[in-house]
């Protein structure tokens, strides 16, 4: 029975991404009845679980922090494609798609993923340990990126409303890309040891002793299937989104709620991977996934949207309103206080989850 389980898992995680993409191709550009939407939702969640498996295979072969970067960047690249497709679709809501999606990703990763990972880790081991130097640098970089792109536009005067002028948008795009690239360089080369999982005494955790590293062929196969699974996740999320929009409209909820729901679906692979890492006592891996995804969402999305705005008509609203700016400031302060000691308890996890719950609640009831 035990010997058959890995083979069964391998077959299932190989089949799920392929079926998700086949369902995506068959349903693309068609009017979707309710039962088809339900099938797409099932394919989406199956692809999410498969993506987590393949991401863990790649991470196990590459080691930290490279495994976390692969998953964060892969999800973000496809998420950017989804944002651009939604903006090309046009409509009155297109001007805020990028802002709503990026802000939702920041709040989900920095509060939702961090909070639930801390909760899981501290319920198991009472105290979660991680590297303060690496996590602190990630928080500082993420706060700078979020402020430059989501707060500053509200206060600039070059254009009426919370918009950048063309020159300001170009500066924000270049600054975001350079800052994210600098962080990746520090994370992977200059100070890689700052982003490795640590024990309670501060020493780095060794490699997983319970499993042999996958071969190069297995790693390449999982990397390909990871990309296929993520295409299925984001593509099916886009197909399901009109049904979500209709449900939101019929319930009289604000349009920002659509972005929250879609972002939650797209970020499911990273959430599950972070929780599994926290359960195994590798809290630093969870933080790498959370903060890395937050920075990638800004550092890759803003430059692409800046380029796309050249041929896309209509305004590009990036500046947040007062409520979200308060939530962002609160997230920055709490995140800094969480990571500076290098260890956290159940209390810190609860604080982050309450902030996340406030964000979700206020998105549906502003």
3D structure, described in words:
The protein is an all-alpha fold. The chain has one domain (4-364): Up-down Bundle (A middle domain of Talin 1). Helix content is 75%, strand content 1%. The chain is built from twelve helices and two strands. The protein has helices at 4-27, 34-62, 66-88, 97-125, 132-155, 166-190, 216-250, 256-266, 268-279, 283-308, 322-339, 346-364, and strands at 128-129, 343-344. The protein has a two-stranded antiparallel ribbon. The longest helix has 35 residues, at 216-250. It is globular and about 50 Å long. The N and C termini lie far apart (52 Å). The model is unreliable at 1-5 (pLDDT under 50).
Question: What does the secondary structure layout of this molecule look like, with pairings?
Answer:
Elements: H1 4-27, H2 34-62, H3 66-88, H4 97-125, E1 128-129, H5 132-155, H6 166-190, H7 216-250, H8 256-266, H9 268-279, H10 283-308, H11 322-339, E2 343-344, H12 346-364
Antiparallel strand pairs: 1-2
Helix pairs in contact: 1-2, 1-7, 2-3, 2-7, 2-9, 3-7, 3-10, 4-8, 4-9, 4-10, 4-11, 4-12, 5-6, 5-10, 5-11, 6-10, 7-8, 9-10, 11-12
Question: What is the gist of this entry?
Answer:
The protein has about 375 residues and is mainly alpha-helical. The chain is built from 12 helices and 2 strands.
């Amino acid at each position: 029975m035990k010997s058959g389980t890995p083979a069964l898992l391998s077959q299932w995680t190989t089949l799920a991404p392929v079926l998700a993409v086949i369902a995506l191709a068959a349903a693309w550009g068609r009017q979707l009845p309710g039962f088809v939407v339900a099938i797409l939702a099932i394919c989406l969640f199956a692809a999410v679980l498969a993506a987590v498996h393949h991401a863990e295979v790649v991470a196990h072969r590459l080691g930290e922090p490279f495994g976390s970067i692969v998953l964060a960047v892969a999800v973000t690249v496809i998420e950017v494609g989804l944002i651009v497709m939604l903006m090309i679709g046009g409509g009155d809501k297109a001007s805020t798609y990028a802002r709503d999606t990026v802000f939702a990703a920041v709040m989900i990763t920095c509060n939702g993923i961090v909070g639930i990972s801390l909760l899981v880790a501290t319920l198991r081991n009472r105290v979660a340990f991680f590297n303060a130097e690496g996590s602190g640098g990630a928080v500082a970089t993420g706060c700078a990126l979020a402020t430059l792109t989501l707060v500053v536009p509200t206060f600039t005067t070059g254009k009426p409303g919370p918009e950048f002028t063309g020159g300001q948008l170009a500066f924000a795009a270049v600054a975001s890309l350079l800052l994210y690239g600098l962080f990746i360089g520090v994370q992977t080369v200059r100070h890689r040891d700052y982003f490795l999982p640590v024990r309670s005494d501060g020493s780095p955790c060794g490699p997983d002793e319970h499993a042999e590293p996958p071969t190069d062929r297995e790693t390449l196969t999982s990397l390909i299937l990871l990309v296929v699974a993520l295409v299925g996740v984001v593509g099916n999320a886009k197909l399901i989104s009109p049904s979500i929009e209709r449900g939101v409209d019929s319930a009289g909820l604000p349009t920002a709620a659509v972005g929250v729901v879609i972002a939650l679906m797209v970020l499911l692979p990273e959430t599950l991977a972070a929780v599994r890492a926290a359960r195994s006592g590798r809290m630093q891996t969870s933080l790498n996934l959370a903060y890395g995804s937050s920075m990638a969402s800004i550092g890759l999305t803003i430059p692409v949207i800046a380029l796309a705005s050249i041929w896309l008509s209509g305004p590009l609203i990036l500046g947040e309103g007062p409520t979200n700016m308060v939530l962002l400031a609160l997230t920055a302060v709490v995140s800094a206080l969480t990571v500076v000691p290098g260890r956290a308890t159940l209390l810190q996890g609860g604080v982050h989850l309450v902030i996340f719950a406030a964000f979700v609640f206020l998105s549906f009831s502003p």
